[in-house]
DNA sequence: CCGCAAATTGGCAGCGCTGCCAAAAAAATC
DNA sequence: GATTTTTTTGGCAGCGCTGCCAATTTGCGG
């Protein structure tokens, strides 16, 4: 167990120590090509003795493809993205891929810069959220020759692979559900829709559905900043101050909806008789509150898993609709 | 705006197109060394025209250090880790570093394998959770010569840099708080402590403090699987079925505590008069429920930020205690 | 024991870039 | 205008590994 120096051990040194050629060491370590059992042992012994750690930088440069998948995601605060990462990284790690990520903070310009930085690592695939990219980003991705996966949205044209579900459909079904339940005076509490374009799509098709049914949205409250429980609470408070006669409120997602739910609890507003609440995402916590939250459960982890599987399998360009599930719950 | 082929543009081609040498292109692109204004323009024009994206694989191999930081984290479900990643990645991206991550699922063996895989990318630093690593992991990290940051725990010996707070102190202060509030019949609901050693440390010092005060823990309920709101609810239900005379329950974290809180809400158990609830983490949602959760707020994002800053600044080995804040709340 | 096919093995040229060094050009000095 | 100094530039040897190809060894049938 001698201590190693700073100087890193190279494959050549292992070859030397094992008394074999470099390519033999390479073959043994990658278990690729043919070599005898005793050679294998000698090499492994030398690897162990020297504490050799292969240099994948060099390996990737010398070979063609990298086993690197780049994620360019809007946020880590919004639970959606850690969930997607979780699903994807489980599959990727199983297949000995590595995940690199960066966070755009919902800024298309940053997305472009970060996508460029990721591309510099010549990843096997780039995964990003949705379809809204700058022209520069799209051009760059197309030119890169690496696989591109757009996640969590299907309302647009895919560059290569898309995995997710339709946010427009989610908005539409949410509205249809509330209408079916005979709510007619409906409001909305949301976070920044300029940035979160998927929430924006849900909202606009939600509104269209209401209008088509002759019960247009009565009032809305849009809060600056990211979605959060506190913003949901605050948003509902403000909305109700302006529009006292609402019978249902649609929230941009479950975080916000929970905030609204707690506001009602604290204010003694009866749910759903006095006010109905509907969310989006299907967070676990929504099922654990006294009245399960009415919401739409989205396949976030599965989105990551499927996306990763398609990349690992080098599947052809395609659009995979994983759908979503409307959870009736008890708040609407 | 001609379309590029699959074949990637190399620096040599840019040099050719710009009518300059390779090293000149390299200098211009990295803005390092000297070159004239017109050379710069010629190079940039060629870069633009050819759609050149530098190959950082090659660049890193040729130069010495990489601007890559590897995260080896136990989980992405536990909000702690996305929060740490968020803090760290913001700082790292600002400094043009890239983040690679992998998820160990709280398995030390997997941690070792994944750490080895990360080391193969010769990162500038490896960040991992806590101090509990296999001998193999520790040896490998020490031998690697790259910076190592251990996060979210200070109860042990750091390999290099450690950033976080003491989980033992957190457990101790939680117990002290409950004792000060005159609770004496205290129970515990937690998730798998074998795996989450930081939760284990909190729990053991919590118990020690209770014992020292002559009010040892009455009952505990440990659930298999990860922490979750639902498990917290279930855990409290089970615990109360066995121990009916508790006056307070300490939860392994806020997720679990919220589950317990909702259980009480649903069962009509008055909080805190009939039963007090104390959590750990200081999630936002804990502040938005009708009675703010009594808990300990941990500096998760700051832990990531500070860790990243130390790496960017190439700071000497050190232990940074960021402390935590006890939130009295209204549930205990 | 020989000949031929199959299994092993080593040598070495890159992969695309950076870093060093010397050459060339430009600027400054006498 | 000659010389020195400074700035700018290009050439090229690697970084550590993989992939190709040729050389060597081994296995087998006759």
From TrEMBL, chains A, B:
Keyword Nucleus appears in the UniProt entry: no
Pfam families, per database record: LacI, Peripla_BP_3
CDD domains named among the record's database cross-references: HTH_LacI, PBP1_GntR
Ranges of residues in domain HTH lacI-type: 9-63
Record-linked SUPFAM superfamilies: lambda repressor-like DNA-binding domains, Periplasmic binding protein-like I
Keyword entries, A-Z: DNA-binding, Plasmid, Transcription, Transcription regulation
Single GO MF annotation: transcription cis-regulatory region binding
PANTHER family: LACI-RELATED TRANSCRIPTIONAL REPRESSOR, TRANSCRIPTIONAL REGULATOR
Name this protein carries in UniProt: LacI family DNA-binding transcriptional regulator
